[in-house]
Write a structure and sequence with these properties.
Elements lengths: L2 H11 L3 E6 L3 E6 L2 E7 L8 E4 L2 H8 L4 E3 L8 E4 L7 H17 L14
Helix pairs in contact: 1-3
Length: 119
């Protein structure tokens, strides 16, 4: 199994996660319609994978070679990794899960529908 296959399988194992291709070569994983991971299908891309982080993790990852603020999204604490092996696979899964949780937490809460009283 390739790293991309493993990432795809893990992302889709998260509750409510969906996938789709956008911008010709970006495989996007969403929860509630919001992106939590972007994977470039172009092996020569500057950011092969990007995901949301909390500010502390973002700062820590920036100290690693091969990590940088994700293009267009860095100001929102999205990190971009040059390739899939910048961090070990188990850590990457943890980072993906954290991104999923951060994005999911920002989704609007559904309001309970009021039941009509029967007459």
């Amino acid at each position: 199994m390739t790293a991309l296959d493993s990432i795809r399988e893990y992302c889709l194992s998260l509750p409510g996660a969906t996938e789709g291709i956008q911008w010709e070569d970006a495989l996007l994983f969403r929860v509630g319609g919001k992106i939590f991971v972007s994977v470039s299908l172009d092996p020569a891309a500057t950011d092969r994978i990007a995901f949301k982080c909390d500010p502390e993790t973002f700062a820590e990852l920036l100290e690693r070679e091969g990590a940088r603020p994700a293009a267009y999204l860095g100001r929102f604490q999205w990190i971009g990794l040059r390739d899939f092996n910048v961090v070990p696979a188990a850590e990457l899964r943890e980072l993906i899960r954290a991104s999923y949780e951060l994005v999911k937490a920002k989704l609007p809460k559904k309001k309970p529908t009021a039941r009509r009283a029967r007459r």
